[in-house]
Amino acid sequence: MTFTQPTTTNHSSSLKDREIALHQIYQQILERQPYGCERTLLATIEKDFLTNKIGVKRFVKEFGQSEPYLNTFYYTTSNLKFLELCFKHFLGRAPQHHAEIRVHFDRLVHKGVKQLILDLVDSEEYLKAFGCFTVPHPRQPNCYLSPNVYLESNLLNEEQIGRRGRSLPTLYWRQLGLHCDSGVCHLPETYEDIQTTMAQEDLSQVFKLLQYAPAEQVLTTLSPQQKAVLRQAIIKST
To answer: What is the pTM of this model?
Structure first.
């Protein structure tokens, strides 16, 4: 994972400094610079930011609810993958565990996508990490909950849009023993590889997720062999 010096602005920042910050915001949250037609939709908040009427946090909050952002990520991905991308874009890390995904999935379903963005940017974690003036960026905490969280944050922060698909979050394709580097997930060479790469406890967690996530979105990403493994894990866990 590549970490750079955080970009920060304040009320006395020059126009050039704010233009640099704006470029960094787009790279972090949109993963590219806006197209011409998108900049037309963003003209008002861009002007407010560049003329010091709003700060970084306010701009991030409004941009996250904008059509350019939602068109790029929300309308073109599964809800589960979108949640993972929100963690990447606004908190600079991958989801830590299934419970965290369930909490935010519930917010997305019951409060809507724009409220989800507001909750992330207004969260205590965002405030501690970036405050009101620092552009969100990939973070490297002093410690991680597990080696998997460290690995998944690295994978997520380094991937490009759609590189590993738009359906299955990194947390799940790793647990399912899939190879998704090409954007399309593939099975390991043998069925035995699946059994050895997927612990029963991980399978049980995936099954629990099906109670919260739309089943058709999760199940359509699984092969017949993987569904069979899931069924075996369910039988053993009951």
So the answer is: 0.74
